[in-house]
Amino acid sequence: MNTLGEGLPANADDSVEQAVERILGRASPRPTPTAEETQVVRDNVHAEWRAVTNRRKTKRHLISWSIAASVLLVLFAGFNAVRMNGIAEIPVASVGKSFGSIYMLGENSELLERNNVNVVAAGQTIITDADSGIAVAWAEGGSLRIDADTRVEFLGRDSIFLRSGRVYFDSQPDGLNGTAATEARLTIMTDYGSVTHVGTQYMARADARTLTISVREGEVRLESLSSIESASGGQQMQLRDGTTVSVVNIKPYGDHWQWIEKTSPAAVVDGRSVHEFLAWVSHETGMKLQYSDESIQTRAMEELLKGTVDTDPTSALRIWMPTTDFEWEIDDGIILVR
Asked: Which of 55, 220, 280, 289 is buried deepest, with most CB atoms within 10 A?
């Protein structure tokens, strides 16, 4: 059996790089060290290896195993330093909007107020109080909204754990708020099971006994210990006590969804058309957009706006539409423009 360090080729540096890559590949993937920490590990290994190659060949076998152990010790020391220092090594989302008091869970389970947080990393837990909310742009695309009295743990780039409270996920957000419009994947883990989606906007709420999934668009799948269920746009699915599942029809707009508008990030409408603005309002509120005739829609696509909308979408209609040449009204979940 060949041992690490035996039969070194003339180009020792290349062998060192390959050996380091093999050792790094066997190390635990979480938490992942930063680029700077990895480079420190490499530098230390290279220096150790060069020192070893200058020793007598008869001691190579024993020394080779010492090198491997030293490399692993350096790696583990680096990983433990990451854990102990709380280094946020895997950013998963950026904060688009927040209000009220936002907290993060500390290393000793203490609450740390973080109202100015800009980036959320894997392993962090966000907690909102009774008067707060937050919207984050998912790193892989999509917009996640967190309601008041909610606790969410960010597990990685494609998953969260909803401990309690209410969240809303939009896998294809409107581009006016700067969020990537590509369809994103997200798994919402709960004490009752996991929730996944196909091209959708949906809301998940967890309390002591019930998990409620409300679907505005697309399809959502709930996989629990007892069954696998699904719901489509305009449906609400409830799992009670971990076993009983019911599905009812709901409206994709109205009071049930109202809190989401409070977390809607600012929309940049500068140079964008009236139609794009109205489409953004429709997307955020769940109401349908309808024009009185095609000529009105054509005009709405040609007339441009200036500025940034920094209010909830329904209020934006009342504030911005009087500055245009269009009239509008809301009737039974339809935004009618004429």
From this structure: 220
List Cα–Cα distances, 226 to 207, 208, 239, 241, 275, in angstroms. Answer: 19, 18, 10, 11, 46
Amino acid at 210: T
Residue in the structure block whose two tokens are 């966000």: 126
Q: In whole angstroms, how far apart are CA 28 and each of 32, 64, 261? A: 8, 22, 41
Look at residue 161 and give its three-state secondary structure. Answer: strand
Q: Locate 35 and state its tokens.
A: 């680029």
Residue 245 burial (CB count, 10 A):
17
CA distance 62 to 60: 6
Distance, CA of 261 to CA of 272 (rounded, Å):
21
Structural tokens at position 337: 């423009």
Contact in structure between 12 and 4 (CB atoms under 8 Å): no
Q: Which domains does the chain have, with CATH numbers?
A: 12-85 (no CATH), 91-258 (2.60.120.1440), 266-337 (3.55.50.30)
Are the CB atoms for 185 and 162 separated by under 8 Å? no
pTM score of the predicted model: 0.72
31-57: per-residue pLDDT in tens?
555 545 544 444 554 444 444 434 433
Beta bridge mates, 133: 99
Q: What is the pLDDT of residues 256-306, one digit of tens each?
A: 999 999 999 999 999 999 999 999 999 999 999 999 999 999 999 999 999
CA of residue 229 relative to chain centroid, distance: 24
